[in-house]
Design a protein that fits this description.
The complex is a heterodimer of chains A (497) and B (179).
Chain A lengths: L6 H21 L1 H9 L3 H23 L9 H25 L6 H12 L15 H16 L1 H8 L5 H7 L10 H29 L5 H16 L17 H15 L2 H8 L9 H24 L5 H16 L9 H5 L3 H13 L12 H19 L9 E3 L3 E3 L2 H27 L4 H12 L15 H16 L2 H15 L2
Antiparallel strand pairs in A: 1-2
Helix pairs in contact in A: 1-3, 1-4, 1-7, 2-3, 2-6, 3-4, 4-5, 4-6, 4-8, 4-21, 5-6, 5-20, 6-10, 7-9, 9-10, 9-11, 10-11, 11-14, 13-14, 13-16, 13-17, 14-16, 16-19, 17-18, 18-19, 18-20
Chain B lengths: L1 H13 L8 H8 L7 E14 L4 E6 L8 H4 L8 E6 L16 E2 L2 E12 L5 E13 L2 E2 L6 H20 L2 H9 L1
Parallel strand pairs in B: 3-6
Antiparallel strand pairs in B: 1-2, 1-5, 2-3, 4-7, 5-6
Classes of the chains: A mainly alpha (497), B alpha+beta (179).
């Protein structure tokens, strides 16, 4: 029997959502300031409207707050799942009012793509978008990559925040307190921001020949999209726009930093040794090498690039961009669509597997891949050894842990759900008449929050596919559990007693 | 009635806007077959002019916004369609004006160029290797009027949020927190 949530449950959820919405209002100050500084008055008014709605919604949520604001596990899950719908809905307002989207759904698509750090876009005439709205698109990626709820946790203490933290797809706590962990994550991001934007500015002025303002504009945007493995760019030709190997190298470093788990950042921060022994690090290095080799051999076999330098530069960057879940491109959509055979397999695998757990990237995640492989190997070993032999089922991940049957089952379930999501998207794409390879590429790209496209994602895409891809981005970013919990919560509200 | 609603919903879900293709699409899609072909393309220079030691990188957009800028017409016509173009420094003229962006439709030029596909000279770039440039129209300023309705609604919402916050003891809580 399902227990029907009472009014106090709903008020707790609305109150917590109100705290999260406040953060959107605060985040809106960045593009508003940018708009005022650049005298982009139309954009400025749209940011004022968004901030006003966010603050008003937050204030109303305070009015109905219950005395006991403690969040149970189910409340936390529902709050996170709803937050990842409400925040992009609010964030879509300035996008829609920019006049660059064909419908509110298109603006919501881009906002969801932004906060989920996917990077697919249905914006039209991006090259004439105002600077401040462009900054907002990238700021949505930064906010989403850091974790919207995590951002709220940094500023608002609440009872039961542990559920919010885990519901947002983070698996480990660096410090005993969630708030301290959140602050450490912001510290790491801040240091990378300072270093990254400085380097981009220097490159902008010294090698690309831009002025100071344009160097800052590109630097801020590309930093936010690279470190948070988002993949939006201020210009329509993605990272190919810059025609610069040094710009690509800086971006590659930031993409790697973004795909690395924050607990590994903590190990590096403290100069602790032994990170290479971690199962997750070994897995991601292995899968990266495998996908890179497959992709490079595939490209060479196709004869798409005639010299080693071209093959290495284009192949390495694209595979890295796919594996970290960033989605920057230094080749055109039609180029990507022409990657066949092993080159496609390498790209597809890199996108599907994704970065590290508790990082800013999406996909199945390396830890799950490593644990799945480990569980399979242990099972095979168990079957081959004598019946009374004892198989040691442990793995190293910031210390030695037991690989229990329950853990293996949970990891495999999530991995299978990702595969299922990839297949559903592929089936719908094929039903709409797209070639199976293209449909699969786009489906994996959306579900694993990558953002590379072979050309299917466009304003001309059928509405149902837009809705489906929004769902894929949402589910993929939340790693299913919070979304399923929300469905369960709604079901118990409707049919519970 | 229910069937009619169902039909209308399904139609709305299945209908898609028409895709727009143009000569630049065909050129890039042709790939290796078009490598080394001489082309003449007219389009808008957008983004930034990026001077390097050997020449200048620009982005040429060949899309409907060249003739009908979004801020002038308010009509959306799909995504941008652009390609990098590399031109020798002596072909560049500062009189073209600012490249296209939010504040202006960039200079419209006709480029005579060789289409380079995955060129080893720039480690696999696909671009236009420009040999001649003709200015069609210099850069034109664009304007977008602010919306007073949005501003009034936004400020009203902020004021209402402030009233609720301070009316429910928010100010006292704020003072207590920072004292």
């Amino acid at each position: 029997m399902l227990l029907k949530p009472n009014k106090a449950d709903l008020r707790r959820i609305v109150y917590a959502l109100g705290r999260v919405v406040f953060v959107v209002g605060a985040a809106g100050l960045l593009p508003l300031t940018w708009a005022l500084a650049r005298q982009e008055w139309q954009s400025a008014t749209s940011f004022v409207l968004m901030i006003g709605i966010a603050l008003l919604a937050g204030a109303i949520s305070t009015l109905i707050a219950p005395k006991d604001r403690t969040l149970a596990w189910s409340h936390g899950m529902a709050v996170v799942a709803l937050a990842w719908i409400v925040v992009p809905a609010l964030g879509a307002l300035p996008l829609y009012f920019s006049g660059h989207y064909g419908s509110p759904l298109d603006a919501f698509f881009d906002a969801m793509s932004g906060v989920s750090t996917t990077g697919l876009s249905v914006i039209q005439d991006l090259d004439h978008l105002s600077d401040s709205v462009n900054v907002w698109r990238h700021a949505l990626q930064f906010l989403g990559g850091q974790g919207i709820v995590l951002a709220a946790l940094t500023f608002f203490a609440a009872s039961g925040i542990l559920s919010l933290y885990f519901a947002e797809g983070r698996d480990d706590r660096i410090f005993p307190s969630v708030k301290s962990t959140a602050r450490f994550i912001w510290l790491v991001s801040g240091v990378h921001a300072l270093a990254g934007i400085s380097v981009y500015m220097f490159e902008g002025v010294a090698t690309l020949g831009y002025g100071w303002y344009r160097s800052l504009f590109h630097g801020v945007n590309i930093f936010m999209a690279a470190f948070d493995t988002g993949g939006f760019t201020p210009q329509s030709t993605s990272l190919a726009y810059y025609h610069s190997i040094t710009y690509e190298a800086t971006t590659a470093v930031l993409m790697i930093a973004g795909a690395v788990s924050f607990s590994l950042h903590y190990m590096w921060w403290r100069r602790e040794k032994g990170s290479l022994k971690n199962l997750e690090v070994r897995t991601i290095l292995t899968t990266f090498v495998i996908t890179l080799v497959a992709g490079t051999i595939g490209l060479a076999a196709q004869g798409l690039y005639t010299d080693t330098a071209s093959l290495t530069r284009r192949g390495f960057f694209q595979i890295l961009s796919a594996h970290t879940g960033t989605g920057f491109a230094t080749v055109s959509n039609s180029d990507l669509a022409s990657w066949k055979g092993l080159a496609f397999v390498g790209m597809g695998m890199a996108m599907a597997l994704g970065g590290m757990a508790s990082s800013t990237s999406g996909g199945v995640k390396s830890l799950r891949v490593g644990l799945t492989v480990r569980a399979i190997i242990d099972s095979v070993r168990g079957a081959l050894l004598p019946e009374n032999a004892i198989v040691s089922k442990t793995y190293i991940q910031n210390g030695r842990h037991r690989l229990t049957a329950q853990l293996a089952q949970s990891v495999m379930t999530i991995s299978l759900l990702y595969v299922g999501l990839y297949l559903v998207g592929t089936a719908v794409g094929v039903a709409y008449g797209y070639p199976i390879q293209d449909a699969m590429f786009e489906s994996v790209s959306a579900s694993a929050a990558v953002g590379l496209s072979v050309g299917i994602t466009s304003p001309a895409m059928p509405v149902l596919m837009k809705v489906l891809m929004i769902g894929q981005m949402w589910l993929g970013r939340l790693e299913f559990i919070a979304a399923f919990s929300l469905v369960g919560f709604v079901a118990s509200w409707v049919v519970g007693e | 009635m229910r069937r009619l609603l169902g039909f209308l919903t399904l139609s709305a879900l299945l209908i898609s806007a028409p895709a727009v293709a143009n000569e630049l699409d065909d050129l890039i899609a042709g790939g290796t077959a078009n490598d080394g072909v001489q082309v003449t393309l007219t389009g808008e220079l957008v983004g930034d002019f990026s001077p390097r030691s050997e020449g200048i990188w620009v982005q040429l957009n060949v899309d409907p916004y060249v003739d009908a800028p979004l801020l002038e017409t308010g009509k959306l016509a799909g995504t941008n369609n652009g390609i990098g173009a590399f031109l020798p420094s002596d072909l560049f003229d500062e009189g073209w004006g600012e490249p296209g962006g939010y504040r202006n439709r960039g200079p419209v030029v006709t480029l005579t160029a060789i289409f380079r596909y995955h060129d080893p000279r720039f480690q696999g770039e696909t671009y236009l290797d420009v040999s001649a440039v003709t200015l069609v129209t210099p850069s034109v300023p664009l304007e977008q009027a602010p919306s007073s309705t949005m501003l009034v609604l936004g400020l009203a919402a902020i004021a209402a949020a402030g009233l609720i916050h301070f009316g429910t003891g928010g100010f006292k809580r704020l003072v207590r927190k920072f004292s």
